[in-house]
Amino acid sequence: MAQKLDYLKETPSQTAGPYVHIGLAPGAAGFDIYRSELGWDIAGPNAAGERIRVEGVVIDGTGNPVKDVLIEAWQANASGVYAHPESEGEVEDGFRGWGRVITDFETGDWGFDTVKPGQVKARRKLGTGPLHEPANAGGDWLGRADEAHEDMAPHINLWIVARGINIGLNTRVYFDDEAEANAKDPVLNLIEWQNRRPTLIAKRGERDGKVVYRFDIRLQGENETVFFDI
Amino acid sequence: MSQAEFYQRDRERHPPALTPDYKTSVARSPRNALISLQQSVSEITGPVFGHNDIDPIDNDLIHNYAKAGESAIGERIIVHGRVLDENGRPVAGTLVEAWQANAGGRYRHKKDTYLAPIDPNFGGCGRTITDENGYYFFRTVKPGAYPWRNWVNNWRPAHIHMSIFGTSFSQRLITQCYFEGDPLIAKCPIVKTIPTQDGIDSLVAALDLNATIPLDSIAYKFDIVLRGRRSTLFENRLEGN
């Protein structure tokens, strides 16, 4: 026997269920209750950088759209700063960098307007102080990558919940016009199967003079999106 | 600048993605393994909310959608507790959101067609921000059980959905709060996605007579635990303590 560790255990996750909108986006459920719903404006009016839209559909293992999904987005501003005290730097007044995205209940299409995030500083490797040369970019065969060396390419973090999803799925949106930064990105490089990396890269297009990135999420099956344990 | 990571998620405590007895998970569960990440600033930060974002009435589901002078129908309850991390420290100032069916088991949602009636005085959602001790409470009515098609005839135990942020995107959690003594808990395929009895028990709010409001509301206590944060050895200093 040994001493008992007195850590608490994390509360287990449960599915958000089909009616997640009641709690997190009541207007979409069909009623107006709060002075203001949270998460509709990710960047705010003062954010610098390129205004973009990200659109897609979440597809299940049968090839059909998931119409009751809710996605949360978390991103840095155009300078690579998160609206959080532990991110070095300042964000624009009104920039929260977080939003909620719901689908059209009939088609499953979703989309959100924001600014394109900038490169984000990589963490420094524990105990090594300043940035250093990569020891083993891409990782060895036991997954022991040196993730500390390069800044991260512009990306938006997503968290996906729905009926049938027992614990929220984390993934990232990268941008296909950032090929050089993507090639050095420590997280993309961590994905051993190179043919899976493109599942995280949104395709840039234009509609009515607006920049629109397409990012479909496949929960299962061919070209299944890469999801992370963060 | 602290870069301390959070303890890894105990994947043996959470439900796996694929739980065939909860049928909807079958086509919505990734088949590939999750890719494990070392946390960066993208994971150790998360949205910050303040009292300007919400109103004081938001945590009172009995009244926040009711006409003036009226209130929601049902067994009046208080659901209260603390949001803690795995180190036992309170998570102060974090947003907690709740949603639920009404006392008859009907959700106010355009896609819910259950034959139980809508309560005109009940919206079914609330939100609050924890105080400096991590404490929160909601006033509401006890939700009703309701039938759903999983197997031919399943019934959800009474439950309140809860969404919690913590201080980082990696702590983000949605769960469900059940109520002590409900015989439907042990029969529910969604509850049973959780692999351990201890994990299931941690989602069952205890009857808390000490917190009742005499002649008004009964009370249930529901504590929530989010991932804890490491003390990190960084340039020969311990951080995160």
From TrEMBL, chain B:
Gene3D superfamilies: Aromatic compound dioxygenase. InterPro entries: Intradiol_dOase_C, Intradiol_dOase_core, Intradiol_RC_Dioxygenase, PCDO_beta_N, Protocat_dOase_b. NCBIfam families: protocat_beta. Residues 7-40 form the Protocatechuate 3,4-dioxygenase beta subunit N-terminal domain. Residues 44-228 form the Intradiol ring-cleavage dioxygenases domain. Residues 1-25 are annotated as: Disordered. Keywords: Dioxygenase, Oxidoreductase. Belongs to the intradiol ring-cleavage dioxygenase family. It comes from the Bacteria. It is an enzyme of class 1 (oxidoreductase). SUPFAM superfamilies: Aromatic compound dioxygenase. One of its GO terms (biological process) is 3,4-dihydroxybenzoate catabolic process. GO terms for molecular function: ferric iron binding; protocatechuate 3,4-dioxygenase activity. This is Putative protocatechuate 3,4 dioxygenase beta subunit. Its EC number is 1.13.11.3.
